[in-house]
Amino acid sequence: MSALLEVHIGQKRFANRRVLDNFSAALWPGEIVSLVGASGCGKSTLLRIVAGLDRDHDGHVLLDGVPQHGVSRDIGFIFQEPRLLPWLTVAQNVGFDADPERARDPRVHALLAEVGLSEVADALPKSLSGGMAQRVAIARGLFNQPRLLLLDEPFSAVDAFTRIRLQELLLSVAREHGTSILLVTHDVDEAAWLSDRVLVMGEGHVIQEVAVHDARPRNRRSSAMTNTRNTILEVLEGAHVL
Ligand SMILES: Nc1ncnc2c1ncn2[C@@H]1O[C@H](COP(=O)(O)OP(=O)(O)O)[C@@H](O)[C@H]1O
Ligand SMILES: [Mg+2]
C-alpha cells in the first residue's frame, strides 16, 4: 500500500519568520491522524498548504504520489467556524460548490440524513445551533467525496457534550465514505480518541509520533485512552509546550 498523502516542507516563511522548518508527514489510506502542538507552531499553515490554499513554500504535497498544485476536490477542508452562507438553506449550503441548484442533488439529502439534519434541509443557517451548523459543514465537506478531509480545530467552539457527539459523527462518516482525516486539535482527549496516530509538533515540524493501538469502538474511560493521553501530554511537556 502506498501513502495517500505525503507532505514535505523544507521551509515556509512569513516575511523573515520561519514557520515550517523541515516538516514531513505521511498519511495512509483510511487513516485518521491528528496534529497537536502549541499555538503558533504552524499547524494551520500546514493544513492550508496541504489544501493548496498557500503555494508559497519550497516543499511538495503528493496525493497518491501525484504532486498537487492548488486546490482539488480530492481534499476537503472544514474550519473551526462552519462558514455557511447565511442566505442559502442548509441543503443549498451542502451542495453549494459553485451551484446552489445542487441542493436538489439526492446526495445532499443522503448526506443530511447521515448527519441527522434531514428535518432542517430547508432552514436557514441562523436558525441552527453551533453543533448543527458544524454538522452542516461536515456534510458539505463530504459532498465532493474527497479522499482526504482536513479539519482545523473543528469542534473548539461547541460545548463538551456536543463535541463528543461531533467526534462520533466524524468517525462514522469518515469510515462510511472511506475518507482519510488530518485533524488539528488542541484537545488531547479528542486526538487520542479519534486518531490512529497523533503527530506532536514543536516549532515548525513533527517532534514525535504517538501511535494509538486501542481497538475501536473505543471507550473514552479506558486505561488505553488514559495512557495515550498521558503519552501525548508527556511529549508536549518535554517540548516545553506545557
Ligand atoms: N498570513 C500570515 N502572515 C504572516 N504571518 C502569519 C500568517 N499566517 C500565520 N502567520 C504566523 O505563522 C505562525 C504560525 O501560524 P499558524 O500556522 O496559524 O499556527 P497554529 O495554527 O499552529 O496556531 C504564527 O506565528 C502566525 O502569527
Ligand atoms: Mg491554527
What does this structure look like?
This protein is α/β, with parallel strands linked by helices and 242 residues long. The chain has one domain (5-185, 219-235): Rossmann fold. It has helices spanning 43-50, 90-94, 106-114, 130-143, 160-177, 188-194, 223-238, and strands at residues 5-14, 17-27, 32-37, 60-63, 66-67, 75-78, 148-152, 180-184, 197-201, 206-211. The strands form 2 sheets. Strands 6-7-8-3-9-10 form a 6-stranded mixed sheet, with helices on both faces. It has a 4-stranded antiparallel sheet with strand order 2-1-4-5, covered by helices on one side. Strand 1 and strand 2 form a beta hairpin. Helix 3 crosses helix 4 (130-143), helix 4 packs parallel to helix 5 (160-177) and helix 6 (188-194) crosses helix 7 (223-238). The radius of gyration is 18 Å and the shape is globular. The chain starts with a strand and ends with a helix. The model has no long low-confidence stretch (mean pLDDT 95). Bound molecules: adenosine-5'-diphosphate and magnesium ion.
Set out the fold topology.
Blueprint: E1 5-14, E2 17-27, E3 32-37, H1 43-50, E4 60-63, E5 66-67, E6 75-78, H2 90-94, H3 106-114, H4 130-143, E7 148-152, H5 160-177, E8 180-184, H6 188-194, E9 197-201, E10 206-211, H7 223-238
Parallel strand pairs: 3-8, 3-9, 6-7, 7-8
Antiparallel strand pairs: 1-2, 1-4, 4-5, 9-10
Bound molecules: adenosine-5'-diphosphate (ADP) and magnesium ion.
Magnesium ion (MG) binds next to helix 1.
